[in-house]
Amino acid sequence: MTEKRSVLIVTHTGRPGAVRSAQLVLSRLGEAGISARVLDSEAEDLHCAGVDVTPASDTAAEGAEMVIVLGGDGTLLRAAELARTCGTPLLGVNLGHVGFLAEAERADLAATVDKVASRAYDVEERMTVDVVVRHNGGVTATGWALNEASVEKASRQRILELVAEIDGRPLSRWGCDGVVCATPTGSTAYAFSAGGPVVWPEVEALLVVPISAHALFARPLVVSPHSVVALELLPATSGGVLWCDGRRQIEVPPGGRVEVRRGALPVRLARLHQTPFTDRLVTKFGLPVAGWRGRVRD
After folding, report:
1. Are residues 199 and 181 in the same domain?
2. Which residues act catalytically here (predicted)?
3. Is residue 296 one of the residues assigned to a domain?
C-alpha cells in the first residue's frame, strides 16, 4: 500500500506574490501525489480548490510530513506554534527581507518543492525556552519561545527595576528598558539588535541581554543550557510585559518573577542545504569578505 503523504502550507497572504507562490507549491505537490492542507484563516485568500482546510491550532500539523512556510521569519514563528507539539519540521521559504530562519528563497521555489517530494532534506532540532511567571508564590502564566523571551517595561515613562538571578543566586540589579533571554537561534533576532553576541546554532546556551540598563555590570551573558534564569521585578517598580517571540504577551505585575529555562520541546527545521552558518551570516547581512584568500596550501 502506497504511503499517503501530506504537507501543511502556511502563508503570509499579505505579502506581494505570496498567494501565487502558495498556488505554485500546491500545484507542484499535487503533481507529485502529495496532498496539501491550508489553514482556515488563509484558505479564502489562497483561492484553492480541492485542498484540505484545517483550523489554525496546535494540532494543525498532526500527521503532516512537513510545514512549508511562505513568508518571513515572523510567519515561520507563527508556524512554529502550530508544529512544535507534533514535532513536524518547518521549511521556510523567504518572501520577506532578511529571513534568517528561511531555508530557501522565492526564486528557488519549484526546486524546493521538488526536493521535498524526493525527500532530499535533513531535519535539525533547535533549542527553545520555557517560561514560567510567578507572583505571590503561585504560577500565574506559562509560555515558550523559539527565539527569545523578553521582559520589558510596560510604561514608556518609567524604567523597569529588577534583579537578575542565575541558578538560584542573585547576579545584579538593573534599572533598564528590559531583558532579553534568547536561544542561539534567537541570537540573530531581538538579542542581536540589543547588542548581544551571535551564537552558532550548534552551540547550546542561553543568552541574557539587558536592554539600555543603567548599571556598571550590564553586559550580555552566555550561560549554560541547563541554567535557570530568573528576573524578579521589584515591588516598587512599574509592571512589566513578557513577550514570547514578540508574538505572545503576558503581563508581569510589580513583584512578579519570570523564570526562563531550556524548553522541553525543540522546534524542528528542515534543511535542504548543508550551508555553513558563517556563509548564512555573510549572505543574510551582506557582510564584506572581499580580500579573503582562505587557507594557504602547504
Report:
1. yes
2. 73 (proton acceptor)
3. no
189 is in an annotated binding site: yes
Say if residue 78 carries a ligand binding annotation.
Answer: yes
Q: Taking residues 94-115, what's their average pLDDT?
A: 87
Which candidate in 40, 45, 73, 108 is catalytic? 73
| Distance, CA of 18 to CA of 115 (rounded, Å) | 20
Cα–Cα nearest to 102, from 128, 80, 127, 72: 72
Residue at 210: amino acid letter: P
Nearest one of 58, 89, 96, 59 to 75, comparing CA atoms: 96
Short-list 216, 235, 227, CA closest to 172:
216
109, 54, 116: which is closest to 90 by C-alpha?
116
Distance CA 263, CA 29 (A): 33
Please, which residues have CB within 8 angstroms of residue 88's CB and are 6 or more apart in sequence?
Answer: 8, 61, 62, 64, 65, 66, 67, 268
Residue 210 falls inside a structural domain: yes
Condensed to tens digits (0 to 9), the pLDDT of residues 270-295 reads 999 888 999 999 988 999 999 999 98
**158 known member of a binding site:** yes
Predicted pLDDT at 298? 67
How far apart CA 169 and CA 39 sit, in angstroms, is 45
Q: State the angle between helix axes of 18-31 and 109-117 in degrees (0 to 180), rounded to the nearest 10.
A: 30
Per DSSP, helices labelled H in 232-288 are 277-285
pTM over 0.90: yes
| Residue 191 annotated as part of some ligand binding site | yes
The answer to whether the annotation marks 177 as part of a ligand binding site is yes
Q: Which residue range forms the structural domain that includes residue 172?
A: 129-262
97 and 144 together in one domain: no
